[in-house]
Specification:
alpha+beta, homotetramer
Chain lengths: ~290, ~290, ~290, ~290
């Protein structure tokens, strides 16, 4: 969403915001629930749905990302989406993350509406995963420059097979002097320096198809901040930094009458392979995926 | 809110729901923030705002309670309320708790609107603290019978002075056979037994004026479930049971440029006095306040 | 251990202490590890080994209980026991809980030695599960009276089969006026009242054979305090109250090269059956097991 | 401690281990307790005393570091030290961290004894803070090379005054190919590559004199892993990575009858200054202190 220019007028604009939808798989998420975990690096943030993920160990909706003050409208719209697919819905735990786009956007105007949410959910596809200045990324900054949505992934080969692990970030964090690329402090050499302060936020969504229990996904999630550190982030006081990790390789049905049919989870030591590959020259370890 | 009778029709009714507002003090909560803590007994619930309470140790809005699927609309309406009082609002953490009123109410219709929220906030007073079948309590059940809102409080005398501790609950939990009054298992003697299952939820809000740090309030919050246990609750799988504790005796300003002016917090051992009075016949310990 | 009378002399006596061993199964626990979880009600305590249980979701040693200041010597002796059975041991996480027996015992003398630990471990059996004033229970009090070790169990019938859940407690908590039996406040009628203050501790060990993930065992563990509440406990400031839950129905090998061979975990809603039976007259729900 | 050469013989040697003592101040720590917090990055570790730090928000002993399997003997010896200074000691929470020195040392021999512990505690001084291959560092490796003890500190100027923040690490973590210096991946260029695997551990102790509440120290502690990330760490499955943060700027007495006499804690936004200085060229931010 992009409209208007000039000085901010609450309720009018300029509008620089949006919503990004992450559908773990192409089916009905409410009925076929990916195991999941959440981790909070710094809880100065308003994400919805995280406590229930921790208790039950799974998602029951797609994950949406948006601007901070739109998080509740977007959560409510996500209920509409789930209700369309599931009659007699009496309870659901929408999961929505946010970063503060108030530097570029009329944030208090809360311009993301149900139609935008449903459109993002219905138009999500495998083939077109746009990055950069799209969706929730439209209003974001990053390390003092224009921020947005980014993704990366790699394949991990373990005894049980080859699995993919990927990360999507909505970045709105950091100051330009802190900025690093894979650890190299390039930001302090960039001119002109941005005047924006470091406060912001980052949402990190980790997805895999490996057969992992929610406890194991929690271990993955707790390492996601290491990538942020190598990008220069220091998680300032006002930065709301949340991680959600899920797997399609271990799902739970909504009825609760059956459980996972997998032969078993990955042995614990093999998780290190997901934290960091053991090849001599790691190209894209989890911790540098963005 | 009460309208309609007969069979449920989504979006129409019957409507048996509402919203309850808890204002820690009569001033501007966003600017004069009570220290606070949250505790989750069972996180099968959708309450908003809890992670930031844990990170920063304070509230920055009143606490609202409502039915489960209205929690996001009510959170969004609470932003409207705070924005009315605080110009140029760019971020705020609304705190809204919920229980599932879907047994009596057209829950998916989400009938609580901004006007109801603002009315609850503007009409809250010291003098009229209605209990029972009011506000968010309208759609609730409790131990198989009609539930609702209840409160209790007592005075704790410690060396530093006399302080009050009170509890407000929104109860929607338990089965009739489990029901106890101060530990006495009266529910199993009641006839007829309710047919309703135990799944439900409870919101427990603890308020005090004692000078406590957020860590100390967390210790209070973690004991609130003991009162639920004595009322017969067993926190079934689907019961979302959340505790929020705050104090007016220790506040933080919104600017962050000054901190609390108190001479100091209560010594740790005196907290036991708030958990349970040491008088020979405790009439209303925290753990039996409801 | 019981020796000496009269006034306490540090390093000499009187000695009223001991150690209690809980062996999840008859095999080598270090190689065949029961899934487990821990929960801390009040962390004024010195139990060892709990963080690693939370991270990895299993036990790798038996669980020992003793007096507070013996917890480190007993942990070290438990390493000796595991090393006897497992050559080339380079790391192990001994799990030892404690309550403070300083009211009856020369606690600073730390009279529990490796020989006592090995004896407890080697003499543990299915047939003789002594209760009361035995093992670690020798130095304990409870609700102002003589405390000790107690156990209880029941069978839970779910779709997948019949499973047993049991609780062992080492109780050293509560004041006599608080004491309740299944919620009934009998303590305040007892004369003479004890002069002892409520500070103390309780260790609660929950064991089952149901196929549960560590996350599910965590849900069980977080409800164990409800039984304490019904026994009158209010968890005073100085009471260290810890819960460890494990299952023999889901084990992990030490090599990490294979995982559980179970067909699957219990569906989440069936956990409520373990929290509280649904029979009209629950005789021994989890929350009143002691 | 350094004795013996050649092949490992359990109970004999070679011995390459030791103990390091961190005394927050020169007084009686048990009576004059620094506020503190703990954070666990990966809980595959055996550190003692952390749960009570989290509950009560302070230290009551010095912090000791040693090899993994000596952690319980060292904890017990620390009780001896505290008992010497405090008569009638009935309870104390020794805090001891560890890394696994089993690659260089006869770890199961547990060669650190009470005399070594008392010597470390009694010989600690402001003037001689040796680094490198000393104390607990003797048996450690780091990123495939010889590891040990390291420290760094800097001064943070905020409105309330100038405060110092320092970090001491016991490092035994990482593989050589991962190794980075302030983010620069130099390790992959080093030859020969080490054959040692990445599993290990790290203990990070953060000390300051700023007036902070334990909740604020927790925020500091949760950022310490960012420095590890910039040094190349990825926290493999078997790495036990623990953080303890304390301040001398906010203390609690052992009697509990008085609390801190400070005028107040630092305002929350100023904590960012402790996470990362705002100067154009940060020389030693918290996250690169080691």
């Amino acid at each position: 969403m992009f409209s208007g220019t000039g000085k901010l007028s609450v309720g009018t604009g300029p509008v620089r915001t949006g919503v990004t939808a992450i559908l773990p798989h192409g089916g009905n998420i409410y009925q076929d629930r990916p195991c999941a975990a959440a981790h909070i690096i710094n809880a100065y943030g308003k994400s919805t749905g995280l406590p229930q993920i921790e208790e039950l160990g799974h998602l029951e909706t797609p994950v949406l990302l948006t601007g901070t003050l739109s998080v509740w409208n977007v959560s409510n719209s996500l209920v509409d989406f789930v209700a369309q697919e599931n009659s007699e819905l009496g309870s659901v735990n929408p999961v929505v993350g946010e970063c503060n786009d108030g530097y570029l956007n009329d944030i208090l105007g809360r311009h993301v509406r149900t139609e935008h949410v449903l459109n993002a959910l219905n138009s999500a596809s495998d083939s077109d995963t746009s990055e950069g200045n799209v969706g929730a990324g439209v209003g974001m900054t990053g390390f003092g420059w224009k921020g947005g949505i980014g993704t990366s992934s790699r394949v991990v080969a373990v005894e049980q097979g080859n699995y993919t692990i990927g990360v999507l970030v909505l970045t709105n964090t950091g100051s330009s002097e802190e900025f690093r690329i894979d650890g190299i402090p390039v930001g302090r050499e960039l001119t002109p320096q941005s005047l924006q302060e470091a406060d912001g936020s980052i949402m990190i969504i980790v997805a895999t198809d490996a057969p992992m229990a929610s406890r194991q996904l929690g271990r993955i999630a707790r390492r996601a901040g290491f990538g942020l550190a190598r990008a220069g982030g220091t998680v300032s006081h006002g930065s709301g930094d949340f991680v959600i990790a899920f797997t399609n390789g271990h799902r739970i049905s909504s009825t609760g009458l059956r459980s996972c049919s997998l032969s078993g989870f990955l042995p614990e030591p093999q998780l290190s392979r997901f934290f960091q590959p053991l090849s001599p020259r790691p190209k894209k370890p989890l911790s540098t995926l963005f």
